[in-house]
Design goal:
CATH superfamily of the largest domain in chain B: P-loop containing nucleotide triphosphate hydrolases
Radius of gyration of chain B: 26 Å
Number of strands of chain A: 4
CATH class of the largest domain in chain B: Alpha Beta
Largest sheet of chain A: 4 strands, mixed
Structural class of chain A: alpha/beta
Helix content of chain B: 40-55%
Oligomer: heterodimer
CATH topology of the largest domain in chain B: Rossmann fold
Largest interface: A-B, 28 and 34 residues
Strand content of chain A: 5-15%
Structural class of chain B: alpha/beta
Shape of chain A: elongated
Largest sheet of chain B: 6 strands, mixed
Number of domains of chain A: 2
CATH architecture of the largest domain in chain B: 3-Layer(aba) Sandwich
Number of helices of chain B: 22
Distance between the termini of chain A: 36 Å
Distance between the termini of chain B: 60 Å
Strand content of chain B: 15-25%
Order of helices and strands of chain A: HHEHEHEHEHHHHHHHHHH
Strand order of the largest sheet of chain B: 6-7-8-3-9-10
Chain lengths: ~375, ~625
């Protein structure tokens, strides 16, 4: 038998063993499938920060047709629900304080005349700042409505407006659009870190790792064989989430699947590297769990999943270079939503590949040289 | 309340009903008593029901039928009251490894609500008794196995119970610590008027009990004082001296194989000691090999083995079906064998396989003849298989193994002995490439382990102390996996797996998950996995710890066979009497090699003329320590 064939036969034997041990246990089978759906639906529905049925009140001091048109434009969106028409701006405070309304609109007396003169008509917008996120979003929605209203009323051509809208990639400001593609990265990373992390620690705890180390396989063979099942499972989960977001939540996929999977493969590899390093350092499964949880939160926070990376302090931004999720997220979103090709995201690959290399070398070395 | 007895059990039975499986009769109609102010022993092989019995007494389970009174109370009805009066130390006592010795004791005192006022006095006494006074600040996880057990005992005793239940407290503990632990027990029954009920696998411990119960498969085979029990096998124990040129373990193997005359045989003190079966007739073939049998006084262990073997035999006769199966297998094997010899060239099967196959179908007489034929030349000129020179291993400042050199020849059975923490595990792990060396040279199977560890491992077979195959995988999947990683071709793998299934009688359990196998099967599977690729060197790390004597006999019979076929065997063990099976043994203490040689050579080193290997070992280690102190 050629040395090369022997090499692969050994890797294959371990891979089969890994797959068997993973899938024979009904608990681990469930753990691999249920959370993907739960998290997918959770983020898709519950944890979105787009608004629905925002209660609002308004004061119309202009009593004009244009003012009524503007109010119609607000109601038409379906995002806002009219609670009450107020007589004077002095009533606003009590409505907001009591929480009856989150937003109040004041249309000034000169609204109609100013618009007719093609000069500025200032509509006052008061929002409840108790929840800054809601307030911000409300304002953003209203800006959108006002802009559209302007264009319709002023009869400006549609062309340039449409163009500026597209740069948002999320015309309705649906947060699930940015969240779901991001989730593809987050969920597969969580699972892969766990899976790879526990794989060696479990064997250490059961004493089977020694048994494996006395066989004539090298650390690299163990490493590769342990990576393959994690890779299969990571990609499977990514695919489930991709399907969920395209077919269930109807977030249109505009890029190339090939490019997306190239990103996913490299990203899952780097996660496996981190997981195996954790596994090689930890003495038991309990420690692995602690390490994974300690790592996961900063990895998610510093990835730009919830807040944009360029808003972070400089020092933290530097740290994000060690975070493969940051680059994966960027690449996934751009491929998914923008539909860019390989060329546009090629630089996202470099930090991920560096991380993969560093962690894999570390783990392989630790397999044999760690003294328990 | 009867004051003499701490425990009275009448016709106690315990069944486990497992849905979808056969009901397990863990205990069947057992009656016994435990006396106050004395130690009562419980001996029996694995799965005899010892732990079940202990747990019933501790009120952790309810009896299925029968009456069980502990300290005058019915355990079934008043388990909480009973539990307040007794202390139970399970096989694996729940020490908190991250807490210090003192913190562990405080914790258990808190749990049992021991008032602060009496703690100080009691702690002082317990620590003194267990010799842990100097180690109160040390983390429990960093204690040696023996010290951990002693701390467990101290924690169990914080509440000063009326009845102490100990479930195999000395498993995996070295001879020194065992002696110390038993000294504590003797002291306790005297000073505290305590009743102690202890299960054990060691006969020398059972011999120290006032009354002993022998349990097998849920039934008592016998009970009585150690002397009474010993009497049962009186007149059936014999000894033969091993003629020159023969190995002790070969002679032992030949004798134990002959079940027409013999129930058990062990190598001991340069001779082979055996027990005859009920017919008690002379073994006819001994004279043919210039051996002469000599009757000797019996011991407790002889009775124990006799009772067990006869019980097993009685059970076997009940299921004659099993025998039929074996015959069919042998027939199949001989068929395969004839086709094998013809095609061996094409098949590329090496000579070892053929020999192994041949041996499997040899007649009893043939095997005996092979065992008892001297091999002088062969023995003298065997190549060196393992060579260790100036081996050193340090962990930080601590030197675990210091400057050790030795060699092992091909086909030799080489034993590594030493008290807990002597460095034998460290040496062992370096030999099989699990631990990098600090410095020194290590050649194993003609390959430098330090330089090319991966390559060297092709020649290794390894059986860990604790069962360490994949528990969720079936027997076949496990064997397939090891065949794969050892790089056997598909065809050879199939053949070898079949051969191992035959050899270790694993056909019946082939599709069972390895983790669910009974203890003895697990051990056989571990051996099968380690021998699948026909390694030149077999490493065995305390393979017999926690295994009953019956299984141990079978295990050593396998070893004898392997050694005969040229496999080099390196083994660590806690059972000093097992050193008798080894060609040579090496004793380490505090990281230093203090003695190496044949068991007989080591016996000669003993100044007091000790014959028992356990005594020889203790003497050599103590002498070594004295010499070291004198040097300082």
């Amino acid at each position: 038998m050629s040395a090369w064939r022997l090499w692969w036969q050994q890797v294959w034997a371990i891979t089969i063993k890994e797959l068997l041990t993973t899938f024979k246990d009904p608990r681990s089978r469930i753990v691999l499938i249920i959370p993907v759906f739960v998290q997918g639906f959770l983020f898709g529905y519950a944890a979105t920060y787009n608004l629905n049925r925002v209660p609002y009140v308004y004061v119309d001091e202009s009593h004009s047709q244009r003012a009524r048109d503007f109010i119609d434009a607000i109601n038409y969106t379906g995002i806002f629900t009219l609670k009450e028409v107020l007589e004077s701006p002095s009533q606003i405070a009590s409505r907001i304080e009591s929480g009856e309304a989150i937003m109040a609109v004041v249309i000034p007396q000169n609204f109609d005349s100013q618009l007719s003169n093609r000069s500025k008509a200032e509509v006052q917008l008061i929002t409840d700042g108790k929840n800054s996120m809601t307030a911000g979003l409300t304002t953003a929605y209203m800006t959108e409505i006002a802009q559209q209203f302007n264009h319709q009323q002023l009869g400006l051509p549609d062309g340039p407006v449409n163009l500026s809208m597209r740069t948002w990639f999320n015309p309705n400001l649906q947060s699930s659009w940015t969240f779901l593609p991001g989730l593809i990265g987050l969920v597969s990373m969580t699972q892969v870190l766990m899976l790879a992390g526990l794989s060696v620690a479990r064997e250490r705890e059961n004493g089977t790792f020694d048994q494996l180390l006395v066989t004539p396989v090298s650390s690299w063979q163990i490493m590769i064989a342990k990576s393959i099942p994690s890779m299969i499972i990571g990609l499977f989960q990514s695919t489930v989430l991709l399907g969920l977001s395209v077919f269930w939540f109807q977030v249109p996929f505009s890029g190339s699947l090939l490019v997306l999977y190239a990103v996913l493969i490299v990203f899952v590899l780097s996660s496996i590297g981190i997981g195996l390093s954790i596994s090689a350092i930890a003495n038991n499964m309990q420690q692995v769990l602690v390490y994974v949880f300690v790592l996961l939160l900063p990895l998610a926070l510093l990835s730009g999943l919830a807040t944009p990376v360029h808003n972070m302090p400089e020092s933290l931004q530097v740290l994000t270079y060690a975070n493969p999720m940051r680059f994966a997220l960027d690449a996934i979103r751009r491929v998914y939503l923008e539909g860019v090709g390989m060329g546009a995201i090629i630089f996202d690959f470099i930090p991920m590949l560096v991380m993969t290399f560093v962690t894999m070398v570390l783990a392989a070395w630790l397999f044999r040289n760690k003294v328990v | 309340m009867d004051t003499k007895w701490a425990v009275q059990a009448n016709h106690v039975s315990k069944n486990f009903i497992i849905p979808g499986k056969e009901t397990v009769h863990a205990l069947q109609d057992v009656s016994f008593t435990v006396e106050r102010g004395a130690i009562t022993g419980l001996i029996g092989p694995d799965g005899a029901g010892k732990t079940t019995l202990m747990r019933l007494l501790a009120g952790l389970m309810d009896v299925t039928s029968g009456e069980l009174d502990v300290l005058g109370l019915s355990v079934n009805k008043e388990s909480e009251k009973v539990q307040a009066l007794l202390s139970y130390m399970p096989q694996k006592f729940g020490l908190y490894e991250d807490l210090s010795v003192q913190e562990n004791m405080n914790l258990y005192a808190d749990l049992h609500g021991i008032p602060q006022t009496i703690r100080k006095e009691r702690f002082t006494r317990l620590l003194e008794m267990t010799g842990l006074t100097a180690f109160t600040g040390r983390q429990a996880g960093r204690l040696s196995g023996g010290m951990k057990q002693k701390l467990g005992l101290a924690c169990t005793l914080v509440r000063s119970p009326k009845l102490l239940l100990l479930d195999e407290p000395t498993v995996g503990v070295d001879p020194f610590s065992r002696q110390e632990l038993w000294a504590i027990l003797h002291q306790l029954i005297k000073s505290d008027d305590l009743a102690v009920f202890v299960s054990t696998a060691y006969m020398d411990e059972a011999a120290q009990c006032k009354e002993v119960y022998v349990l097998n498969k849920g039934r008592f085979l016998a009970h009585g004082t150690p002397d009474e029990l010993t009497q049962l096998s009186q007149g059936r124990c014999y000894q033969v001296r091993v003629p020159k040129g023969l190995l002790m373990r070969d002679v032992q193997a030949a004798i134990i194989d002959d079940s027409d005359y013999v129930v058990d045989a062990v190598p001991e003190g340069g001779a082979v000691r055996y027990i005859k079966n009920k017919r008690n007739q002379p073994i006819p073939w001994l004279a043919q090999y210039q051996m002469e049998e000599k009757p000797i006084a019996s011991r407790l262990e002889d009775t124990f083995m006799m009772l067990l073997k006869e019980d097993e035999l009685a059970r076997k006769q009940d299921s004659s079906l099993l025998e039929d199966r074996r015959v069919t297998q042998a027939a199949l094997l001989s068929e395969k064998q004839s086709s094998l010899v013809e095609n061996k060239e094409e098949l590329g099967i090496d000579k070892d396989t053929i020999v192994a196959r041949q041996q499997a179908i040899l007649t009893k007489e043939d095997i005996r003849n092979r065992l008892l034929t001297p091999h002088f030349e062969e023995r003298e000129e065997r190549p060196i298989e393992v060579s260790v020179s100036h081996l050193i291993r340090r962990f930080g400042d601590f030197t675990a193994v210091s400057n050790t050199s030795f060699t092992v020849q091909k086909g030799e059975v080489f034993g590594l002995l030493g008290p807990n923490g002597a460095g034998k595990t460290t040496t062992f792990r370096m030999l099989c490439g699990l631990l990098p060396v600090t410095s020194g040279d290590l050649m194993v199977g003609g390959v430098d382990v330090v330089k090319s560890r991966t390559k060297a491992r092709t020649n290794f077979g390894y059986v860990a102390q604790k069962f360490s195959l994949y528990g969720t995988l079936s027997v076949r999947e496990n064997l397939n996996f090891f065949g794969g990683v050892y790089g056997l071709s598909d065809k050879r793998k199939e053949e070898r797996i079949e051969a191992m299934l035959d050899e270790f009688k694993l056909h019946d359990v082939i599709d069972m998950a390895a983790g669910e196998l009974p203890g003895g099967y697990k051990q056989r599977l571990s051996m099968a996995a380690a021998l699948l690729h026909q390694p030149r060197i077999l490493f065995l790390d305390e393979p017999t710890s926690g295994i009953d004597p019956l299984t141990r006999r079978n295990f050593w019979r396998q070893i004898t066979k392997l050694s005969k076929m040229g496999t080099t065997i390196i083994i660590t063990t806690h059972f000093m009497e097992e050193a008798e099976y080894c060609d040579r043994i090496m004793i380490q203490d505090a990281g230093k090699l203090i003695a190496i040689g044949k068991p007989d050579d080591l016996r000669k080193q003993s100044k007091s003329g000790a014959i028992n290997m356990n005594d020889v070992f203790i003497e050599i280690v103590l002498d070594g320590r004295k010499a070291k102190e004198a040097a300082i």
